[in-house]
């Protein structure tokens, strides 16, 4: 049996949760499942890191190069149309053409698009499986364009897919309610975890800190968390907030100054190994997002023995179980600060108990198990 995956997420992401998770899944597929990845140009780090042997070249031309310096409403839609028809020679058009050639050739049993472009629909003659990670764009439209590619693509692809895979029961319920999909057409397959990491890392921050990982805009709810944690931060002036990922924006810097915490905020780019060190030495890791499909950083934090503080919304209670601490977003700053106070004042015994609960929770998640369940779905469609 052979699965054909397309280029999409490996072109969109240089690094990131979806492409990393897919690389893990492909690597752990049972030996009787062969695969091919239709990607010609990509800067994705996992294609090489996981030895996926795609023989691809670096990105040559993408949206950020299109009409460089000229911005207007609808620019991305125009670029997407031109790329899909091959009217602009971009990495998108090169990858689309390469994927279409493989789809038409038919040397596979199941097609699995890795994102939500509909380019393949007029060429596909075999079953296709769609993974829907979350419905954030549909549930929180205020944070997304009405032409958002995920939202538009899912609207067309979900009803046509031969089977849908979701990473949490929370997303399954959302999909079934949104499109009236029958329960037989959709399967929950949790993503895998990461092994326990008992390695000791030097503390590179030099003072206590709360760790935040990844994007911070919109539905990620970072601004809410800062405001809700303010009373805690005012009482504990030696505690910083460390954010990994992009530099702070001007808008964020204005907020920090308004809250009088600008000298306690740190942003840094880190490697995977450096991130492990930040988890290991943090007071806690927090993930206040309004909507997620799974939440892989939760398991990363557990693996490093880091206490985890989550919003009690979305899939988080499903993934974190009793190993995480939860705050009620609707209760205002008192609930967040109360939970932070508790974590700060935990005894050594309580902190060790939280650590080992995280380790136990990790046992529920395995990439080998996830890949085996994906294989079962693929085989069920033949």
Keywords, separated by commas or semicolons:
Rossmann fold; 382 residues; 13% strand; 3-stranded parallel beta sheet; alpha/beta; 17 helices; 2 domains
Spell out the blueprint of helices and strands.
Blueprint (H helix, E strand, L loop, with lengths): L1 E5 L1 H5 L4 H11 L6 E5 L6 H5 L25 H10 L6 H15 L4 E3 L16 E3 L4 H4 L9 H9 L5 E4 L2 H11 L6 E3 L20 E5 L8 H7 L1 H6 L4 E5 L5 H10 L5 E4 L3 H10 L2 E4 L8 H8 L4 E4 L4 H5 L4 E3 L5 H12 L3 H15 L4 H14 L2
Parallel strand pairs: 1-2, 1-3, 4-5, 5-6, 7-8, 7-10, 8-9, 10-11, 11-12
Helix pairs in contact: 2-17, 4-5, 13-16
CATH level-1 class of the largest domain: Alpha Beta
From the spread of the alpha carbons, the general shape counts as globular
Strand order of the largest sheet: 9-8-7-10-11-12
Strand content: 5-15%
Helix content: 40-55%
The total of helices stands at 17
Strand runs, count = 12
């Amino acid at each position: 049996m052979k699965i054909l995956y397309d280029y999409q997420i490996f072109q969109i992401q240089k690094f990131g949760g979806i492409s990393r998770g897919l690389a893990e899944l492909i690597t752990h597929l049972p030996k009787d499942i062969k695969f091919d990845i239709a990607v010609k140009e990509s800067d994705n780090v996992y294609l090489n890191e996981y030895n996926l042997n795609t023989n691809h070249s670096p990105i040559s031309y993408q949206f950020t190069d299109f009409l460089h310096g000229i911005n207007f409403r609808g620019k991305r839609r125009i670029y997407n149309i031109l790329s899909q028809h091959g009217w602009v020679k971009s990495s998108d058009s090169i990858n689309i053409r390469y994927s279409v050639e493989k789809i038409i050739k038919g040397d596979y049993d199941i097609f699995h698009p890795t994102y939500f472009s509909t380019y393949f629909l007029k060429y596909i003659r075999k079953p296709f499986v769609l993974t829907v990670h979350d419905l954030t764009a549909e549930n929180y439209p205020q944070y997304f364009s009405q032409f958002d590619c995920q939202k538009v693509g899912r609207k067309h692809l979900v009803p046509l897919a031969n089977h849908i895979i979701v990473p949490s029961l929370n997303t399954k319920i959302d999909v079934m309610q949104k499109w009236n999909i029958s329960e037989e057409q959709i399967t929950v397959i949790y993503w895998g975890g990461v092994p326990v990491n008992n390695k000791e890392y030097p503390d590179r921050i030099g003072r206590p800190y709360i760790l935040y990982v990844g994007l911070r805009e919109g539905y990620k709810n970072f601004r809410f968390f800062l405001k809700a944690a303010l009373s805690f931060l005012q009482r504990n002036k030696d505690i910083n907030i460390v954010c990994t990922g992009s530099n702070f924006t001007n808008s964020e810097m204005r907020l920090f100054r308004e809250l009088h915490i600008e000298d306690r905020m740190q942003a840094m780019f880190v490697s995977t190994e450096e991130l492990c060190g930040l988890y290991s030495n943090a007071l806690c890791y927090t993930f206040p997002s309004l909507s997620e499909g799974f939440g892989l950083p939760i398991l990363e934090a557990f693996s490093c023995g880091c206490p985890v503080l989550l919003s009690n919304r979305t899939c988080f209670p499903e993934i974190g179980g009793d190993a995480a601490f939860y705050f009620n977003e609707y209760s205002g700053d008192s609930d967040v600060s109360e939970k932070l106070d508790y974590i700060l004042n935990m005894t050594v015994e309580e902190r060790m108990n939280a650590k080992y609960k995280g380790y136990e929770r990790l046992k529920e998640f395995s990439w080998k198990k996830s890949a085996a369940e994906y294989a079962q779905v693929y085989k069920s469609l033949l």
